[in-house]
Design brief:
three-stranded mixed sheet, 3 strands, about 10% strand
Length: about 90
């Protein structure tokens, strides 16, 4: 029996899953670069072109101060994703 069609189908999901994980890692590293504070990967959510981060108000204020630089770096590092805002 030939299972190549199933393997190909599952491979698409595997690639999409790892692509998202890679995006979360790059977002966390970019924020750490600008703020010098680590962000937990579990606190990052992506919805469309927006990035949502669950954290303290002080941390969110720091992100907003550096928002333009963070978004510019993410655009350079993740050209396939066009993030427009961080909340």
């Amino acid at each position: 029996m030939d299972y190549n069609h199933i393997a190909g189908f599952l491979h698409k999901f595997k690639q999409a899953l790892f692509k998202d994980e890679e995006s979360y890692d790059i977002i966390a590293l970019t924020i750490k670069k600008h703020i010098s504070s680590p962000v937990d990967l579990k606190s990052i959510k992506i919805k469309g072109t927006h990035i949502y981060i669950k954290s303290s108000p002080m941390f969110k204020s720091e992100i907003l101060i550096h928002k333009i630089g963070i978004l510019a770096d993410l655009k350079a590092l993740l050209p396939g994703r066009n993030f427009t805002d961080i909340h």
